[in-house]
Automatic annotation (TrEMBL):
Catalytic activity, as annotated: 2 GTP = 3',3'-c-di-GMP + 2 diphosphate
CDD domains recorded: GGDEF
Residues of the GGDEF domain: 459-592
Organism: Idiomarina rhizosphaerae
PROSITE patterns xref list: GGDEF
EC number: 2.7.7.65
Name the UniProt record assigns to this protein: diguanylate cyclase
Length: 592
């Protein structure tokens, strides 16, 4: 393999990246088709398995509204039920559930003539599916109306993107997705074959290991997308159940061996090499668990290995980059791409994020880029080895480049440390030292920002001004230390009560606090304040002087009932409400 090999790899990379971009665009285009209906879906969950009659007879309070047509609850042992009403249409439709990794899926279509029941899931042979797709789909004939119930049990992540589409819309969606997947797996196959030929021609073991890595990654993606069950093992329920943890473990095993060979760690850095061998051992252990344990255990083991494994490979790449290895740069960029996609996909499976495009295509895009870059780095590395043997005079330039890289890295570290110090100083400047809450300065700045956003977007904004009742006698009777202890515990209690990330709790001064509640109308703010009053009223605060109780007076105001042109008007209204609560007897809330 000569210098032309590097050029050839670069051409491969360019063409494949273009194909991947086309693939991603096609996939993105089918995520929100115009012919998808918006369904008013309700859901409930139970630790016990329910039958249809029991689910239908549940009180309405047990059913909660689903904000979108995409349910995502992470890993759970609960059984989930979903229901929605379907209006009649003068054409055939398809109920489409665009997630392939559900163990048991039962769909009940309630009709005047009876109930049509569809048993689905990847614990049932693929040939039993009414519509041969890697996801789940049920035909709805012309005029079908009534209520639809869906029951789901799964050891995988509890995710249920539900759509009712026209037949044309469904098959257009499927075609767009199959094109994107065809391009993606075509790229993987080309890379596997290309590097297999590289191994045959050069006898370099990293080419063979990388070819296996690509094939195992393809197996992992086929399992994730349900395509393996569709096309390769439709009758193997065992492989469908174990495919993700088995192929995932094999992927990390070959990744560790590939990095060990590629970066020549046995020669240059034995400690890092031992770390990769530990990673390979853990991947082998994960493989054994995947073969013998149930899916829920094995997938959590795999996810626990995925992120730290990628991080370790990234650290090794950065280290070798600093040592001046040109191909280590590409290696590092490749693993950065995969790491980001693994983290995003893991967060999606755990129910932390709710974006079906990110969850379903993050690994596809990230891994595609990573595999192309690693294939390129193999050619670059092989070419560099030949150059080192033939052109000894270039060593001095490489040593100089290494020195520049080290100084650049050190400068980046110094700048990062300076940035961290500045961030810490800024945090201390906006933090109350006693309670750890935001201080009065931050309160005024943030309230002004929120009010501007409220006026611009025409959203409600609520403000609560809070005062501890008769706090001075507490200090006079039990001492300021006891008073400080009460304030600290009260601050934690209010932070726990303000559950949304956008809710801001501040210490305004002394025993006075403020809570900013964005996108909250007056009724919601009153409910929040009433619950806070009740919680504080029933709480005993532990102090050096013993258990003490306090009460609060709260002034509540919201822009949902009154327009405020500036912060001063908003603050004065809340403060007036606070004093009204105090004048009316304390331990209560008042609304201005």
């Amino acid at each position: 393999m000569t210098k032309a090999s590097g050029v050839s790899a670069l051409q491969w990379l360019f063409l494949a990246l273009v194909a991947l971009l086309f693939s991603a665009s096609a996939a993105a285009a089918q995520i929100l088709p115009e012919n998808q209906s918006e369904l008013a879906i309700e859901y409930t969950n139970s630790q016990q398995k329910l039958d249809l009659e029991t689910a239908k007879n549940l009180p309405s309070t047990d059913w909660r509204k689903l904000d979108t047509d995409r349910a995502s609850f992470g890993y759970t042992t609960d059984e989930y039920w979903f229901r929605f009403k379907l209006d009649a249409k003068p054409y055939d439709r398809i109920l489409h559930i665009a997630y392939p990794l559900l163990d048991e899926l039962t769909i009940y279509v309630m009709q005047s003539e009876g109930v049509r029941t569809y048993l689905m899931g990847d614990t049932i042979p693929f040939s039993d599916r009414l519509i041969p797709t890697s996801e789940f789909a049920v035909p709805l004939s012309e005029g079908t109306n009534g209520e639809i119930y869906i029951k789901v049990n799964t050891q995988s992540s509890m995710r249920l993107p539900i759509a009712v589409r026209t037949e044309v819309g469904f098959f257009e969606t499927q075609m767009s997705r199959r094109i994107a997947e065809g391009v993606y797996f075509g790229v993987l196959l080309c890379m596997a074959v290309y590097n297999l030929f590289g191994f045959i021609a050069s006898r370099e073991p990293e080419f063979g290991v990388y070819s296996l890595y690509t094939l195992f990654f393809a197996g992992l993606m086929l399992s994730l997308e349900g395509l393996g069950f569709h096309y390769l093992w439709p009758d193997s329920l065992y492989l469908q159940d174990k495919g993700i943890p088995i192929f995932g473990s094999l992927t990390f095993l070959t990744a560790a061996l590939f990095a060990y060979q590629l970066l020549e760690l046995k020669r240059y850095r034995y400690t890092w090499g031992r770390g990769l061998m530990v990673m390979a051992f853990l991947a082998g252990l994960s493989l054994l668990i995947a073969i013998f344990a149930n899916y829920r255990v094995s997938i959590h083991v795999l996810l626990s290995l995925a992120v730290p494994g990628c991080l370790f490979l990234l650290v090794v790449g950065v280290y070798m980059w600093r040592k001046g290895f040109v191909y280590a740069r590409i290696f590092t960029l490749a693993w950065c791409s995969l790491l980001v996609s693994v983290v995003v996909n893991s967060l999606g499976y755990l129910g932390i994020i709710d974006s079906m495009f990110i969850q379903r295509h993050a690994i596809m895009i990230g891994s595609g880029i990573e595999i192309l870059l690693l294939s390129w780095v193999l050619a670059v590395r092989y070419s560099e080895q030949r150059k080192e043997r033939l052109q000894a005079e270039q060593r001095y330039n490489r040593e100089l480049e290494e020195s520049v890289d080290e100084r650049t890295f050190e400068l980046q570290v110094a700048l990062r440390e300076l940035q961290d110090v500045n961030t810490e100083l800024e945090q201390k400047n906006t933090e109350d030292p006693l309670t750890g809450l935001y201080n009065r300065r931050y309160f005024q700045q943030h309230l002004e920002r929120e009010l501007r956003r409220t006026l611009r977007r025409e959203l409600p904004l609520a403000l609560l001004m809070i005062d501890v009742d008769h706090f001075k006698p507490v200090n006079d009777t039990y001492g300021h230390l006891a008073g400080d202890q009460i304030l600290q515990q009260l601050a934690k209690l209010m932070q726990q009560h303000a559950k949304r990330a956008a809710d801001i709790v501040c210490r305004y001064g002394g025993e006075e606090f403020a809570i900013i509640l964005p996108e909250t109308d007056l009724q919601e703010a009153e409910t929040f304040a009433s619950q806070l009053l009740e919680t504080v009223r029933n709480t005993e605060f532990k102090t050096d002087a013993g258990l003490l109780k306090i009460t609060l007076s709260i002034g509540v105001i919201s822009t949902s009932v009154r327009i405020f042109d500036n912060v001063d008007e908003l603050f004065k209204a809340a403060d007036d409400a606070l004093y009204a609560a105090k004048n009316e007897g304390r331990d209560r809330l008042a609304v201005q």
